[in-house]
Target: Nitroreductase domain-containing protein
Amino acid sequence: MTNLFDLQQTRRSIYALGNHINLSEEAVSDLIFKTIKESPSAFNSQGSRAIILFGDASKTLWNDITANALKSLTPAENFPATQAKLASFANGVGTILFFEDQAVIKGLQANVPLYADNFPVWAEQSNGMAQYATWMALAEAGIGANLQHYNPVIDDAVTAKWNIPANWKLRSQMPFGSIENPADAKDYNNDTDRFTTYDK
Model:
């Protein structure tokens, strides 16, 4: 098993994606779903949800749904660059759609009213941990990925296309595939500006 610190360094935003990975769709799905299943959540609420779009379904998300949603929001002279970016996501093997079940949050708020205001925040944190864990699991398998947030502009179209339950709120999209071009070197801020310790 890869050392956690090494794996954290391996996980990068990969934008040049291809469709040449060694795992089957079944194996990729199993890896993703098991990783999300083991991700922590407040009160063990397990409100994170995921749908994996493979092949043509992933291409539809990027080249049709997202492109159509952004066309009216993007200056005409900038839209070709936007299309090219979306096409890079579509070139991968698939895309993970991460959702958070709002019914779970409301149930917690009703059952534990003392923390009602916190449950939406904790749900976002839980979903973020599921995303990060999944990203690292893909990296360990040699699969590149990046994280996108085109919600809420694509929410209605995604819900209609894939019959998403009304109480599932889209939180992010993670296109993944083979690493056709590695990420550039990563710059780090000064540690002293970010971290400190006390012993009393």
